[in-house]
Structure formats: structure tokens, C-alpha cells
Amino acid sequence: MISVSDRGIPLAQVIVRQLEKDLKERLKRRAARNGRSVEAEIREILRDATSGRLKAVPKLGSRIASRFHRTGLGDNLPELRGQSPQAFDTGR
């Protein structure tokens, strides 16, 4: 469906039916977090998905460090890359 705005610019309208209730709630929360309406949030999601640009996803270690950075852990953890995993010794 195509409609025309008051400025004469053609805009597409998309209707999504049978949207799961939990998805709708997550969209509402995401929109609120980003200070946008649900409609504006969906437009932003569609722009991102079709932009052709890939967002750099932080690596797991960086994501863990950012999640726990306020817990008081000040020392850097040793690099374990290339080492074989060791079973935890419970003392039993």
C-alpha cells in the first residue's frame, strides 16, 4: 500500500499481522530504552537490517568485562587462548 504524506512524498506502509504478544512487548521496551515510539523503533530496525552495513559485535570477553566492570574486579584476567581446558578439582 502506498500513501502520500502532506509534503507529497510517497511513503510505503507495511502491516504486520499475527505479531506475537511477547515480541510486541519487547519492541515496546526497546523503543522506550531508545526514546522512540514503537513505530519509529521498527523503522530504525528496518533501516539497520537493510543498510548493508554490518555492525561490529564485541567479542565475548569484552562483553563479559563490560557487564561486570563495576563489581570491583580490578586485575586483568590471564589469557587462556591455546590452553587445554582443565577440570575443576572439587577436592572429593
Overview of this protein structure:
- The protein is mainly alpha-helical and 92 residues long.
- Helices cover 37% and strands 7% of the residues.
- It has helices at 21-33, 38-50, 60-67, and strands at residues 2-4, 10-12.
- Strands 1-2 form a two-stranded antiparallel sheet.
- Strand 1 and strand 2 form a beta hairpin.
- Helix 1 (21-33) packs across helix 2 (38-50).
User: What gross morphology would you assign?
Assistant: elongated
On the 0 to 100 scale, the average pLDDT is 83
Residue ranges: pLDDT <50 for 5 or more in a row? none
Which percent bin holds the helix content? 25-40%
Widest sheet, order of strands: 1-2
What structural class is derived from the secondary structure elements?
mainly alpha
How far apart are the termini? 69 Å
How many strands, which pairing sense, and closed or not: the largest β-sheet? 2 strands, antiparallel
Please give the count of helices.
3
Oligomer: single chain
Q: How many DSSP E strands?
A: 2
Q: Give helix and strand order, one letter per element, not per position.
A: EEHHH
What is the alpha-carbon Rg in Å?
Answer: 23 Å
Strand content: 5-15%
Q: Secondary-structure blueprint of this entry?
A:
Layout: E1 2-4, E2 10-12, H1 21-33, H2 38-50, H3 60-67
Antiparallel strand pairs: 1-2
Helix pairs in contact: 1-2
Defining key terms:
92 residues, mainly alpha, two-stranded antiparallel ribbon, 3 helices, 37% helix, elongated
Short description:
By secondary structure, the protein is mainly α. It is built from three helices and two strands, in the order ββααα. Helices cover 37% and strands 7% of the residues.
